[in-house]
Amino acid sequence: MELSRQRARKRVMGRFDFLRTCALARELCYLIRSNLPVLEPEDVHRACLFIAKLCREAGCDEPASLCEKAAEAVLTDEEKFLELCAESCRLCSQSARRPGREERREERERRATYVA
Q1: What are phi and psi of 77, to 5 degrees?
Q2: 56: buried, middle or exposed (CB in 10 Å: 19+, 13-18, 0-12)?
Q3: Distance, CA of 114 to CA of 7 (rounded, Å)
Q4: H-type alpha helices, the chain
């Protein structure tokens, strides 16, 4: 029974960390991108730096780096900002899907090799 509780705890805490970092970062990013016309460049700069921090905490260094560069670019070059932001979003969606698939595959393999 203790092993089941430990697995459930690991799953819950993994989900908690995902929501605290990845899901929050993506939701905030969507909020900023969908409201760009009404925001000042300084607002976008501040938000993008925070989003990059969340991405880095989740272990997504490349999207975080691009997001930081986009945060700096928004103050000087809107076109460059949009390019960097789009690239960061593309990388984020790729890396966000990959770990889930790997975890499910490992879980299936572990269950398949279980011997009572």
Answers
A1: -140, 100
A2: middle
A3: 15
A4: 2-18, 24-34, 41-57, 61-73, 78-112
Reading the block at residue 96, the tokens are: 């966000």
Q: What's the structural domain count of the chain?
A: 1
Q: Which pTM does this prediction carry?
A: 0.74
The domain containing residue 100 runs over which residues? 2-112
Digitized pLDDT (tens) for each residue of the chain, 116 residues in all: 688 889 999 999 999 999 999 899 999 999 999 999 999 999 999 999 999 999 999 888 999 999 999 999 999 999 999 999 999 988 886 555 445 555 666 666 666 655 55
Q: Which amino acid is at 69?
A: K
What is the C-alpha separation between 48 and 70, in angstroms, rounded?
Answer: 7
